[in-house]
Amino acid sequence: xxxxxxxxxxxxxxxxxxxxxxILAPYFDKGMKEVYFMSxxxxxxxxxVDEDKCPEDSDDxxxxxxxxxxxxxxxxxxxx
Length: 80
Description:
- Strand 3 (69-72) and strand 4 (75-79) form a beta hairpin.
- The chain has helices at residues 14-24, 59-66; strands spanning 38-41, 44-47, 69-72, 75-79.
- Strands 1-2-4-3 form a four-stranded antiparallel beta sheet.
- The protein is an alpha+beta fold.
- The protein has one domain (14-29, 37-79).
């Protein structure tokens, strides 16, 4: 199992959210041209990339966690 990264200083900021989107973009079916790549529910944004595509313990997953993202019902998510 990979070692957890320390919290990124960009965590829970606009900069961190955008950095996370850039990490997740290659996992979207159409990459940066994807149209329906997220949804929102109350105070959480769901990005439509699940554990099978980008596992939490992968290199990208570890960076996403350090940026404040987490695995939620629909896949990767970010609290606002």
